[in-house]
Amino acid sequence: MVDQPAWDLRLGYLIHDVSRLRRMMFDRALAPLGITRSQWWVLAFISRKDGLPQVQLANELDVGKVAVGALIDRLESSGFVVRHPDPVDRRVKRVFVTKQAKGFLERIRKETDKFNASIAKGIDRKELEAASHALLAMKRNLLALSDVNASNGTKEEPVTKPKPRRRRRAA
To answer: Which residue intervals make up region (Disordered) (predicted)?
Structure first.
């Protein structure tokens, strides 16, 4: 019989380690192309939802507005995206991929395919499919837990620092 708590703990560490190592090695694979994984991630997301407002992009990627803004700044200076004001609300900036980015994304797709093939080397297709199914089921379960917590009002609120009190000057 499998010791359940130890097995669960090992599985969690393994998922975390594989994810961390994959991110690290993927960054190295993309380095010769002059783009970081974070930039690629944002660029790929925008390419699927071209014209998305910058604030909505930050929300959907679960990244801070400032962080997304900095990533978009770098992508814009590289010629991969452009920002245009929303036609209805000029305060809203919509982000669009450029023609240059579309060609670049094709190059990245080829590198990604090679990278994924190299990390799956020696693993039977059925094992990969079983692992994928298991991870997708875990993802669905986690999302369901998130929905349940949100509907119960148990969603954690961000911790904020109390504002410092002003001292009154003695007259």
So the answer is: 148-171
CATH topology of domain 36-128: Arc Repressor Mutant, subunit A (1.10.10)
CA nearest to 100, candidates 89, 108, 112, 92: 108
Tell me the two tokens of residue 86.
Answer: 């929303």
Q: Which residue's entry shows tokens 């703990």?
A: 9
Between 151 and 161, the higher pLDDT residue? 151
The residue whose two tokens read 């929905």 is 147
CA 55 to CA 57: how far, in whole Å?
A: 5
User: DSSP letters of 100-169?
Assistant: HHHHHHHHHHHHHHHHHHHHTTT--HHHHHHHHHHHHHHHHHHHHHHHHHHHTT-PPPPP-PPPPPPPPP
Q: Scanning the structure block, which residue is given the tokens 């599985």?
A: 11
